[in-house]
Amino acid sequence: MNWLVNTSVWITLPLFVGGFVLISCLIVLALRPLVKRLVKDRREWDRTLGHVIGTFGMFFGILLALVAVSVYENYAATRDATVEEAGQIGALYRATTALPDDIGEPMRELIDDYTVAVIEEDFPMQREGVLPDASLDEVDAIEDIMHSFEAETLSEQAEYKQVLESFDVFIESRRERIDATALSLPTLIWVVIWVGAAVNAILVGFISVEGKRLHLLMAGLLALFIGLVIFVTADMDFPYAGTVAVDAGAYERVYVQIVE
Question: What is the residue extent of each domain of the chain?
C-alpha cells in the first residue's frame, strides 16, 4: 500500500476507487450467465442468498469499522505525541533560562539545533517510513551538559530538578513520536480485508437481477463506498505520510514562538 502515500491523492483516489468499482462490475458481468444457469427456483435462491449476504455483510462491516477505528487511534496517538514533544521542547527551553549562563546557554543552542533537525531531517525520514536518528546527537549533548552541572545552592537545585523533569518527559514524548514511524496494520489484516472485498463482489454478482444496468449500478455503488473506506484506511495507516498525515507544524510553531 506504500504507493498510496507516495503519490498525489488526485491520482491515487480515482485510480484506486475507479479500479475497485471496475473490477466489481467485471465480476458481476462474469457471474451473470452462471447465475442464470444455476437459478431454478428464484425465490429459494434469493432467500438463501439474502441470509448469506446479511451474515457476511455484518462481519465484514464490523471488520472494516474496527480497522478504521484502530488506524484513526494510531493517527491520533501519533499526533498527540508530536504535540506533546513540541510542548516539552518549549518547556525545557524555558526551564534552562533559570540555570547559570555557562550551562543554560549551550543547552538552549542545542535545543535550537534539535528543533531544526526534527523539522528538516526527522520528519522527512519518517514520511519515508525510516526511523529517524538525525536529532540524536543533540539529545546526547544536552544530557551530557545536564550531567556535568553541579548545583551549589538550594535555588539552583530546585531549578535543576525542574530541568531534569522536563527533560525526562521530553525524552518519553520523543520516543513515542519515533516509535509511531513503524505503526501500520499487519499484512494479515490487509489480506483479510482484500479477501472480504472480493467475497463481497462475488456475492453481489450472485444476486439474480433481470436488468444488467441495474445490477451493475448496485454493484458499482456498493464497491464505490467500500473502496473509499479501504482507501482512507490505507492512507491513514502511515501516520507520517499520505494525505492525512502528522507534520512538523507543532515544532515549527514552537521554534518561531519560543526557541528562535
Answer: 2-259
Contact between 153 and 98 (Cβ < 8 Å): no
pLDDT tens profile 67-110: 999 999 999 999 999 999 999 999 999 888 888 888 889 999 99
Q: ∠ CA 248-142-159 to the nearest 5 degrees?
A: 105
Cα→Cα distances 91→81, 95, 107, Å: 15, 6, 13
Q: What is the pTM for the complete model shown?
A: 0.81
d(CA 44, CA 49): 8
Count how many Cα atoms sit within 13 Å of the Cα of residue 67 in the half-sphere of its side chain. 28
Asked if residue 167 lies in contact with residue 143, where contact means CB atoms within 8 angstroms, the answer is yes
Check if the beta carbon of residue 60 is closer than 8 Å to that of residue 200: yes
Cα torsion 225, 180, 66, 193: sign: positive
* 46-64: pLDDT as tens digits: 888 889 999 998 999 999 9
- DSSP-assigned letters across all residues of 119-151: IIIIHHHHHTTPPP-TTHHHHHHHHHHHHH---
Distance CA 24, CA 169 (A): 50
With CA atoms as reference, report the closest residue to 254 among 141, 126, 137, 119: 119
